[in-house]
Amino acid sequence: MSYTRSYEIRLRVFEPLVVHPEYTGFPVGDNRERIEELVAADADARLISLPPDPVADSYRGTPIFLTSDEGGDGFTRVSPVQDDIRSWHALDALEEVSSKSELDMIVPKAARRRAAALRVEWMQDDPDTRVFTRTSSWDVSPVWWLAIDPDEDEVIEAEDEHGNPRVFIRTPILTASARMEWAFDVAKEKSRLVSVVESAESFTTWLDSFDMNSVLELDLGGMSEVLWPDTGSELVHEWIDALDQDDTEAAIRAFNMYTRKWEQLMLYSRAS
């Protein structure tokens, strides 16, 4: 039994299987829980090793399927796990904000050398460099809510193997992209929150890099019981709508309310 990472929230893109011939030989089915358990067990084994190795190198290209029955439109879709590729991006970000001594403590030199060698090997194969999964801890980024609307999108309420609630919110990527482009234009023109504007621009570009028949899925994971149904998304939409209507007072009020909600959720991280 692997360590439970209940704080993780994932945003996945599922592309049609027909544009991924490399997965043709894989047995199609609902394999999500099995793959997640394998990935978590691999992470546990690396982190308790001596020296620890927080940079993944396993399960590259392993697909999680969104079957045609789940999608309801006859298309089977896939989302590559890519834990190694996402680890490399995380390591890049860590190197930008950490001193050498701090980095040596968090990610040993041997692990960084090994990761660099594997990354060079991967780059030589002329790879698809897109990242299909984004991960958040404890809460959902307000930028994600600009692309997803629980009041309009498909909501799947399920239970995990332990009987805990798990909520998935799915929307066609074309819908998500249209929402983001509109929200970005409004925020760019009328918001002073530079970091949010820059994140919205980057996020819009990311969405537009995928096949138009893809599905965007927000998996609230182990935070489902905390975040659902009071996700706070309505405050983000209220903020962008108020900006569009030049109602500065309402926009500030909505964003401040979301920020307070976010701060309350951060208490989970300090109590964990």
List the domain count as a whole number: 2
Fraction of residues in helix: 40-55%
Q: Which stretches of 5+ consecutive residues score pLDDT under 50?
A: none
Globally, the shape reads globular
Structural class: alpha+beta
Largest sheet: 7 strands, antiparallel
Q: SSE order in H/E notation?
A: EHEHEHHHEHEEHHEHHH
Q: How much of the polypeptide forms β-strand, as a percent range? A: 15-25%
- What value does the Rg take, in angstroms? 19 Å
Oligomerization status of the protein chains: single chain
Task: Please work out how many helical segments DSSP would assign.
Answer: 11
Secondary structure: number of strands = 7
Mean pLDDT: 88
Measure the end-to-end span: 19 Å
Protein name: DUF8083 domain-containing protein
InterPro entries: DUF8083
Pfam family, one: DUF8083
Domain DUF8083: 7-265
Structural features, described:
- Residues 7-265 form the DUF8083 domain.
- The chain is an alpha+beta fold and 272 residues long.
- It folds into two domains: 7-13 and 132-272, no CATH class; 29-66 and 83-130, no CATH class.
- The chain has eleven helices and seven strands.
- Strands 1, 2, 3, 4, 5, 6 and 7 form a seven-stranded antiparallel beta sheet that branches.
- The longest helix has 24 residues, at 248-271.
- The radius of gyration is 19 Å and the shape is globular.
Please give the structural blueprint.
Layout: E1 8-16, H1 32-47, E2 63-66, H2 68-71, E3 77-80, H3 83-97, H4 100-106, H5 109-123, E4 133-137, H6 142-147, E5 154-159, E6 165-172, H7 173-190, H8 194-207, E7 215-219, H9 224-227, H10 233-244, H11 248-271
Antiparallel strand pairs: 1-3, 1-4, 1-7, 2-3, 5-6, 6-7
Helix pairs in contact: 3-5, 7-8, 10-11
